[in-house]
Structures are given as structure tokens and as C-alpha cells.
């Protein structure tokens, strides 16, 4: 079963390679692919550096210090995870537009213009960093919360200042978490389509969608996808290599409650100001502005509610299918660990690439089912497949962690009592890992709510989700209307993000649940 789940995850990637070898290339020069690849590389480097700095600093401040607002910032700084990157792009593009309120206010009040263009590569780096820094923040906060205090106390006893203890002790200990968080941020950057397309930045992902939608050439789209696949494989390998053999925490370490350092004076003001500025830039300002613009128009509630229903339905289907496949993989990983690593490649692959890999079987299935109802079923099934193949690794990580709580002695006892292998899994492993399964389902559900490129390519006719609806409105420059579906995605994802942050806060051994 684990091997079958790995094949399911890998099949779309094989489809991309097969499509790239087919004739029928559009008139796209090789230099375009190189230019798009360079832009994607620059964005990835910029976002990796920015998210590493602000995410680590925010995590260190909220985990190890006390200052005004710290209890709120500890969970609120993760909330931008609920906001799709394209929603932030819509807001900042309007704010910094030539006729936008920010530029007009600066010209009217001070007589000079802002030297910043949001529709540019630096603008895209800023927007994507605001959207994806929570990946580093959550990973680093969990790492800091689970560190033993003894190394830090030893460093301070030997004369290190708080800053030196952070740089020389805490940060190296949390390096695997930093690598994992940065890898996730870079993967999401390479996979993003809505934000970079709206900000007029041409990346490999926009090239994939453009080659398919404008030139109608799946072969050309697959050619754009190949560098992304190679980059995804390298990133995944780097992320695994960064974590391998670098588990510095001892299973026998004694944990005591963290003694957070109280900040006073200018240091408390600086810590509060940094966290408040980060939260304002990543969430309060863009979402508040989108809300104000959205209130200028009357929303089409019937269309919005229908799209919300489809979004929730696809989220539930995607989460269910992904968790089932990931559970099978995790159960079989003890015998075939390579299957889990192969299936993880999908998470580093953009949704647009997954969709291109499924175009060939989709065309066959659509020809075999010409009716509208059967076409809807086929389209929904393909979308669910694409979500599961792409997000299986996101579900696999927490499920594997949940199964790690089950000792071989527990399984052996169940087998000695007459349980089969499947019976032991149902009676022992799944109940113990119930919380991990719920966490995995929630992570996939939130990701599916925000997924745009795969949905855009594979959705059945007249099957708009909230993300597609926002993209269509934004493409027509109807930005106030685009704000409503974007805000509804945030509202649907927020409860899940808050639950995840509370779970991380309680993850330290001995902490109250």
C-alpha cells in the first residue's frame, strides 16, 4: 500500500517529463526560459534571506522574552499563514499604485513621491516574504520552545550576553528547523502564481501557466516545469540533508519551564515595535485596506457563497484523500522508507506543474465522459488527485511524528494478542496518532483553500473556487470585487491557523495542553 501511495504521488511528475518530450512546442525561445529561471532564482534567494531574518527574530523574541504584547504576538504573528499571497499582492499593488492612497497622500502632504514600485521583483520579494515568513516563525518557535534550557544557562554562566547566547548556542541548535522553514518558504515562492502574475513578475510558474493558457502547448509548459522539478528535488534533498544527523536534543534531557527574560526600557519598546510592525505589514495593513476597498462594492453573495461551498468541499476532499494516502505511507515507511522520500517530492512541486502532469490523463478522461455531470466528477477527482500528490509530504511529517510515539513493544503486544498488522494499526497506532492526523488534515485543508494554479488549470467548467474567483476579478482589474473572495479565504483559514499555533505553544515537554 505504501508503494502504491508513492506511485500515486509520483505519477504526475512522470507525466511532466513525458509531456516535455512530446512535439508541438510553442514559439517560446530558450532565452525566455533562462530569463524566467533567473527571476525565480532571485525571488527565492530574496525571500529565503528575508524570512530567515524576520522569522527567526520574531520566534526568539516571543519564545524567550517577556515584553508588552508578547502573549498576543506569540500566536498572532502566525496569522498571515491564513492569507493567500495574491491577496497581499492585490492590497500592496493598490496602495503603491500611482493613483493609490499612499502615493497621493505623500505627494499632497510632502510634495515628493515614494521611490518604490510594488510591481517589480523587489516588490514581489517584499509581498512573498510577508506571506511566507510564518513558515520560519512557526518552525523556529517550536524549536526554541523545545530546547533544553541547560545549554543556554551554561552559555550565560560562561559570560555570554543574551545576544551571544542566541547567536552562538540557540541558533545553531535550531538550525534544522531554520533549514526546514526556509525550504518551505522557498518552495512556496517557486510555486506561487497569483501574486507574481499580478505584480507583473515573470517566473517559471507564470511561464508554465502562460505556455498552457496563451499558447495552448502542454509540451512548452512542461519545458518550463522541468527546471522547477529539478529545483524542487534539490531543495528537498537540501532540507533532508540539513536535518539528517543534526538532532541535538537528547531524549534524556531534563526539561524545566522556560525562564523568559523580561525586557525593559528601550529594549521592550523595540521588541514590541518590531513584532507590531511585522504583523501590521504582513496582515493588518493589507487585509484592512482590502476590507475598506471591498466595502465600496456590493458583493455578489450568491456567487461568493457558491464558490465558498466549492472551496470548503475541495478542502475537505483534498485533506481526506491526502491524509489517507499519507497514513498508508507512514505505516509502510518502516519497511520501505524510500517511498516516503519519493512521495515528499510532490510538496516541493508547484501546483501548476502537477496540473500539467495530469493534463494527458485528464484529456482522455474528459473525452470518455462528455456529459457535464460526469465531466464534473472527473474534474473534481483530478483536482483532488493533484492536491493529494502535491501536499502529501505536508501531511506525512506530522503523521510520522505521531506514529513515533508508538513503541515496538506496543505493536508486539497487540500482535501477541492475535491482532493482524492492520488490526494493530487500527487498535494502537491510529488512536495514539489521532491528534497528528487532525493536524495533518488541517494543514492540507488550509493549503487547499489558497491553492490557485492547479485549480485554475484542472477545474471543471464553471467550477470557480474562491481563489479562482479572486484571480478572475483581479485579472479584470475589478480589485474591490476581488477583495471579497480573498477575505473569505482568510476567514475560513484563520480558525485552523490559531489552533495550530496553540498546539505549537503547548508542544514543550511538560507544558500544559
Features:
single chain, 513 residues, mainly alpha
Summarize the helices and strands and which ones pair or pack.
Blueprint: H1 2-20, H2 30-64, E1 65-66, H3 70-76, H4 85-95, H5 101-110, H6 121-146, H7 149-157, H8 162-173, H9 175-191, H10 194-198, H11 204-213, H12 218-243, E2 261-262, H13 265-294, H14 301-332, H15 337-344, H16 351-357, H17 359-368, H18 372-403, H19 408-416, H20 421-432, H21 434-450, H22 453-458, H23 466-475, H24 479-505
Parallel strand pairs: 1-2
Helix pairs in contact: 1-12, 1-14, 1-15, 1-16, 1-18, 2-3, 2-6, 2-9, 4-6, 4-13, 4-24, 6-9, 6-13, 7-8, 9-12, 11-12, 12-16, 13-24, 14-15, 14-18, 14-21, 14-24, 15-18, 18-21, 19-20, 21-24, 23-24
Amino acid at each position: 500500500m505504501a508503494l502504491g501511495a508513492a506511485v500515486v504521488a509520483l505519477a504526475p511528475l512522470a507525466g511532466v517529463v513525458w509531456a516535455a518530450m512530446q512535439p508541438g512546442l510553442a514559439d517560446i525561445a530558450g532565452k525566455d526560459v533562462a530569463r524566467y529561471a533567473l527571476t525565480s532564482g532571485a525571488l527565492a534567494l530574496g525571500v529565503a534571506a528575508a524570512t530567515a531574518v524576520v522569522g527567526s527574530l520574531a520566534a526568539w523574541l516571543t519564545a524567550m522574552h517577556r515584553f508588552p504584547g508578547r502573549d498576543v504576538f506569540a500566536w498572532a504573528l502566525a496569522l498571515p499563514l491564513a492569507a493567500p499571497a495574491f491577496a497581499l499582492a492585490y492590497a500592496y499593488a493598490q496602495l503603491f499604485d500611482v493613483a493609490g492612497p499612499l502615493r497621493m497622500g505623500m505627494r499632497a502632504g510632502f510634495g515628493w513621491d515614494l521611490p518604490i514600485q510594488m510591481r517589480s521583483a523587489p516588490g514581489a520579494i517584499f509581498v512573498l516574504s510577508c506571506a511566507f515568513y510564518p513558515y520560519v516563525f512557526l518552525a523556529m518557535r517550536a524549536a526554541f520552545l523545545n530546547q533544553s534550557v541547560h545549554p543556554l544557562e551554561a552559555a550565560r554562566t560562561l559570560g555570554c550576553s543574551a545576544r551571544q547566547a542566541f547567536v552562538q548556542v540557540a541558533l545553531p541548535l535550531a538550525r534544522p528547523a531554520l533549514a526546514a522553514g526556509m525550504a518551505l518558504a522557498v518552495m512556496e515562492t517557486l510555486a506561487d502564481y497569483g501574486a507574481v502574475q499580478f505584480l507583473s513578475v515573470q517566473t517559471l510558474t507564470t511561464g508554465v501557466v502562460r505556455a498552457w493558457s496563451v499558447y495552448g502547448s502542454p509540451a512548452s509548459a512542461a519545458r518550463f516545469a522541468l527546471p522547477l522539478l529539478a529545483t524542487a528535488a534539490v531543495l528537498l534533498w537540501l532540507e533532508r540533508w540539513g536535518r539528517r544527523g543534526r538532532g541535538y536534543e537528547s531524549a534524556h534531557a531534563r526539561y524545566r519551564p522556560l525562564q523568559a527574560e523580561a525586557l525593559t526600557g528601550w529594549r521592550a519598546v523595540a521588541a514590541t515595535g518590531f513584532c507590531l510592525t511585522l504583523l501590521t505589514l504582513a496582515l493588518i495593513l493589507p487585509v484592512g485596506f482590502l476590507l475598506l476597498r471591498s466595502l465600496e462594492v456590493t458583493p455578489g453573495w450568491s456567487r461568493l457563497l457558491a464558490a465558498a461551498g466549492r472551496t470548503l468541499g475541495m478542502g475537505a476532499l483534498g485533506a481526506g484523500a491526502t491524509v489517507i494516502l499519507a497514513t498508508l505511507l507512514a505505516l509502510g515507511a518502516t519497511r520501505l522508507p524510500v517511498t516516503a522520500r519519493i512521495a515528499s517530492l510532490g510538496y516541493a512541486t508547484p501546483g501548476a506543474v502537477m496540473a500539467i502532469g495530469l493534463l494527458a490523463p485528464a484529456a482522455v478522461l474528459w473525452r470518455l465522459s462528455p456529459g457535464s455531470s460526469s465531466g464534473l466528477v472527473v474534474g473534481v477527482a483530478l483536482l483532488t488527485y493533484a492536491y493529494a500528490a502535491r501536499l502529501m509530504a505536508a501531511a506525512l511529517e506530522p503523521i510520522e511524528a505521531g506514529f513515533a510515539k508508538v513503541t515496538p513493544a506496543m505493536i508486539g503486544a497487540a500482535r501477541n494478542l492475535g491482532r493482524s498488522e492492520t488490526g494493530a494499526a487500527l487498535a494502537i497506532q491510529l488512536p495514539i496518532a489521532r491528534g497528528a492526523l487532525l493536524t495533518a488534515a488541517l494543514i492540507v485543508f488550509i493549503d487547499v483553500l489558497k491553492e490557485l494554479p492547479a485549480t485554475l488549470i484542472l477545474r471543471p467548467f464553471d467550477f470557480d473556487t474562491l481563489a479562482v474567483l479572486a484571480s478572475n476579478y483581479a485579472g479584470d482589474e475589478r480589485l474591490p470585487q476581488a477583495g471579497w473572495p480573498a477575505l473569505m479565504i482568510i476567514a475560513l483559514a484563520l480558525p485552523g491557523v490559531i489552533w495550530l499555533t496553540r498546539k505549537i505553544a503547548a508542544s514543550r515537554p511538560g507544558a500544559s495542553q
